[in-house]
Every structure is written in structure tokens, then in C-alpha cells.
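Letters spell out the chain; backbone shape is given numerically. Both lines appear below:
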Amino acid sequence: MLRVGVIGAGAAGLSAARHLAAQSDHFNFVVYEQTGEVGGTWYYRDEVGTDEFGLPIHSSVYKNMRTNIPKNIMAFPDFPFPIKENCCFVHHSEVLSYLKDYTKYFDVAKFIQFHSYVQEVRPVTKDTGQILWNISTKNLVTKVIKQEVFDAVIICNGRFTKPKYPDIQGIESFPGWVLHSHDYRVNDPFKGKQVVILGGGPSGIDISREIAEVAEQVLFSHNLDKKHPEKVPQNFTEICGISEINGPVVKFMNGHQFEADVILLCTGYNFDYNFLHPKCNVSVKNQRVVPLYKHLIHCEFPTMAIFGVQSLTLPFQLFHQQVLLFLKVLRGSVKLPSEKEMKEDAEADFNYRIEMGLPARYAHKMSNGLLWKYDDDISRLGDFQPIPKIVRDQFDNISYACS
């Protein structure tokens, strides 16, 4: 029997719990969840800033957000979404309801310790040389601190909680309201405002449309290809990136200037592994988490897996695949290469992206067909079925249409 600690009860943590519970003759486990609900980032809260325990609000979901992946391919492969509405792109509340149903169906709530704040994960070496994992947690309600030891640890703390703020010259001089999309919930506060929205990702596109419904004027700023080919309202302008800010005046790279009331930063998120002791030897360099084999397994400590580092994926489907692989590794039915070979593989993957012309910060981005190459790699390594072609084709069509 191997004892496994799982950190986080979002989609990845629940998938891990579901498969660990199905192999109860090999594993016993605990899932630590900081909030009082399952769902991770899909657990919507009206509040922003900090929660009732003084910790940062985890979720970045806004009130009207819908998925940008159809529910029929978004779902875990062995648990389809219920038919509750005709729309393929469901409201975030439907995703949370789905994850709660998944938790109930596979009976994994009994393994979850809610309101458990993970203070530290530390590797401990036994006399035999075996690495164990000491996980220190604090119950946010009772304030009780405890430590438990595990044979393996699965990190599922998400990647949409710690906002990434760009370095913009003069932003400290801006007298108006500066906020990150992590703290955006509804468009009401932007009524009649002059708004600059920076960032051309999915959240920037979606939120800019919402705010344009009530704002006096919206400038949607980014350096990517044009994101709004369809007809846009008269108060909406798509423009290049920001070069500097001088008081209320925002200057753009094409020389245009605009006096703004609000700057909304849809500029993404940083990975946050501050609970990992330095001895875990996990570092983040320019949005690249190292040292990870197959974007998942710690090269030096292969009894640690970190989920959710990749972007532009089918997350629920991919979590399912990654859990299958990692549990086979723990059981010994999949033999990993040596530490040196795993690090060389990770470096080769990174260099392949650079040769493709991708920037270094896209180390875990699954664009340009990389997602299916990755799924083929791990399914071949784990000897299980890859994500079906019909699912791949539909995801590719959606991704192409939205790019």
C-alpha cells in the first residue's frame, strides 16, 4: 500500500481521487482542499481580494463566464456532462455542478479534508534512501496544525490564482483604478468609464465585450493578431500594446494617447508553489516549471507530480490521462528513464518549441499540434488509449475558429 497526498480538490485533484479510490488495494490517500467546496477555480465567489480567513480568493471566474470548450469534449472521458441546456458552451455554474456530481458519483468526498491550508511540502529521506513527503497543514476553522507523511504527492493547486502584473513604465502614476482580471466579477462598476483593457487572451476578449456594454469607451490593447473580426460597437477600439503611462494618459506603441479612468489587466497568472520547501527543488523560470518530465513528473523526485502546468489544453481529459500515467509509475508498472534521461527529454521538448519559433515563456503551451503529440507520448508510455480522434478534431476546429 502506498500513501498519497493530493493537494487541491479542483478538476485535477478530483480526477486523482477518483482513480486512487478505484485502486484501493494499492493506495490510500488524503485530499487537502483550502476552501470548503470542491471545484477549484470553478468555485465562484462574488467576493474579491481575501476570504474570511484572510487568504487570497482562489477563483478567477467572473459572474457571466461560460466555457470556451464544448461540454461534450470538455468532460472527463468516463463521465459526460448531463443534458441540462442546449448550449454547448456552458455557464461556469454548470461546470461546478458537474464536478460536484463527479465527486458524488465516484464517492470521493470522504477522502477530502476541507479548509485544510497546506503550509509546507518537504521531502524526507529515510535511512534506506527512500524519499517520503512530509505535508504540514493548518485547519482554517479549528486552527489545528498537523503533519502527515506520504509515499507520494500530487500537486493540483491550479494556475489561475496568482495574477501576473506587467512591468509598464509609469503605471504607478495612474490616478484611476487599476485591477487584474482575477478581481473582475461584473461590468456594473465600469458604467460610463473610459477603460483600457490590456491582454489579448480569452479573458481579455470576453471581458472587453462585457465592459463595452456599459462603458463610455473601451480600448482593447494587445500585440497579437486582431481578436474581434466581427462588427464591434462604436465605443470599442482594438489597439496595439501600451508603451507607457503618464498620470491618466495611456500611451500606446503606435503613438496614440488616451485618457483613461480604468486599466484592466488581463495579463495572465504566475505559478504559485510557495508551499514547496526549497529541498523540493522546484523552480519557475520565465513561466517554465522545472525539472518536470512530460510536463508532469519531477525528474529528481519521481514520486511527485505537478498537474495543470500546461495551457491551451483539454484540461479534464488531459488530467485523466496524466493520472493514469502517474499511478502506473507509482505502482511500478511503468518504468521511468533515469533522472539524466528525463532531464534531457524535458530539455529536448523545450528546445523543440524554441526551434518552432515559440517564445521561451511558452514552455508548457500546447499549441501548434503539441497537445496531441504530448497525449500520444504519455499514452504510449503508460500503455493506455490516447484521446480519441473525434474529440481531437472537434477541439482543433474550435481552437482554429477562436484563434
Q: What stands out?
A: Residues 315-331 form the longest helix (17 residues). The first strand starts at residue 2 and ends at 7. The mean pLDDT is 95.
